[in-house]
Amino acid sequence: MTSPQPAETRTRGRSAQTATLAEIAREAGVSAPTVSKVLNGRADVAPATRARVEELLRAHGYRRRRAEATRSPLIDLVFHELESAWAMEVIRGVENVARETGLSVVLSESAGRLTPGRTWADQVAARRPHGVVLVLSGLDQSQRALLTSRSIPFVVMDPAGDPGGDVPSIGATNWQGGLAATRHLIELGHTRIGAISGPTRMMCSRARVDGYRAALETAGLPADPGLVRTGDFHHETGYRQGLELLRRPDRPTAIFAGNDLQALGLYEAARELGLRVPEDLSVVGFDDLPVARWVGPPLTTVRQPLTEMAEAAARLVLDLGRDEGSAAATRVELATSLVVRSSTAAPPVL
Amino acid sequence: MTSPQPAETRTRGRSAQTATLAEIAREAGVSAPTVSKVLNGRADVAPATRARVEELLRAHGYRRRRAEATRSPLIDLVFHELESAWAMEVIRGVENVARETGLSVVLSESAGRLTPGRTWADQVAARRPHGVVLVLSGLDQSQRALLTSRSIPFVVMDPAGDPGGDVPSIGATNWQGGLAATRHLIELGHTRIGAISGPTRMMCSRARVDGYRAALETAGLPADPGLVRTGDFHHETGYRQGLELLRRPDRPTAIFAGNDLQALGLYEAARELGLRVPEDLSVVGFDDLPVARWVGPPLTTVRQPLTEMAEAAARLVLDLGRDEGSAAATRVELATSLVVRSSTAAPPVL
What is A174-305's CATH number, 3.40.50.2300, 3.40.50.300, 3.10.350.10, 3.90.1150.10? Predict the structure, then answer.
């Protein structure tokens, strides 16, 4: 985690310290305690003053020194949405690290927006956690500046979009996972293999489908665009897109479902059409949620080590907090692995 | 939520205010600021002093006045364990109320013990949340005293044990749910009905099985003790106890599985033995987790409004915090309801 930092980052770090709190105050035409109040997220500052001070903090790349920053024994965990069974695995990972280090976890949800609201950033600034782990959720420029000026480190887990080269992030080898899932189906003898992707705005779902295409191409199989559908990682679209794929006259004999919930929706579509898994249709999921073992038939899936990824993200953000200079570009991808259960078999003899 | 309080509670409330902080300090032989430090969970107090002050606070039933207690914009949510898919529904409910009221949720886990550790209570005292929601997790006497002395209200959701008459709690009508599940099976024509309960130390699982027995007795059916097995609310025991029940020569034609995860384990046991659900075996779950709709066949289950229960618990704890006098006995049970899907049918004709 403590890789050598590029020279560029160190230089930026030094220049950031040139403006002091007193200089910011002078330039803003306010007292130093007022700047301090803004930094501490106190409510008793006029909105216009606050905006002016924030703007100057950002312009000067002001960064609070360690000694000034008294931290609460908290770590913030922010989700894009709490709907998924997925979220629990992540919470458990962050909770494990928090318990080891005597911290408590503050949980919030950006409620369907991909960046948390302005109020959220103010609350974080006010409670001064040791760090922030963002799950499938990015920060805009002003939010990043706000956290940086308070010396609150952050790490993005499994980025939905391109987090930018200098944002530390923890992901999984999504492309490799899509490749492994599809190669498994090819090795079983399938040649018409469909896919249901997650939302295209998420890098992880793009990477999975690209891995699927790479497997087809390297095996010399045609990639039929009609066999690739876009979902949203929920059960419902697995069902709907599954029905469309399976009602085609040239239906696929195997489908890479993008994630486990979509695989369960696909199971339902198959049942409705009287198709048996795996005799008539092979299905591969992605994630390996607990439920993958429990469904009938137990699901072949690509295991994503969600709890370990969350642990790594929490440890990284605490590392960054201990050594402020090391906020260098850090991108870690943990390995995915294929777990073969009972939802995949050789294609039916037609 | 603001029901009239019993006289006893009001009296206790008055006498609690007779000892002041200065008096506690005098009796402990320390300064008033030292007592204040203990109340604020500060680390710079000798352990022996701290213990003496805590003991006196408890003995006098000291309760911090509203004006003294500056609260952080936090609400604490404590789980017995974060394993269950169940937990997500609860987190979502508390998160909903927190968002409405501008609070953030601090999540912790009592890690398999049924009361959270001492360190946890100290951390809560130090961060001064608006309130604490405990899920399937009780507090011991000294923890209760500690929160009470800091005027931090708490509510227990779905108590595992008997929380005591004066602990505010939110539950569901577990007994009614067990009754409704079993009556549904009786109405379909089943006469040999098994049950897999949750752990017997949890009141909710006892109540469900008692409802099951009441349904059998009021229908004039014998309650065969050999058909009732004890699980732990996890998939694995549903599977193991399911195998034992289904291997009996006089196997039941229907089983009330205690919760949804045990029902899924039971599905697996039935598959392994070549029994079809619902043709050979009817299954009823409890909870109505999202997965209940997704499995094959979709599960008939008793819906427990987990998200609404969590919302009610969060609202209650905030109400208690706003009006300190109202910490009267409060026990709310939200209604459960039977959701009939495809895992139940008339018994096989033998």
Answer: 3.40.50.2300
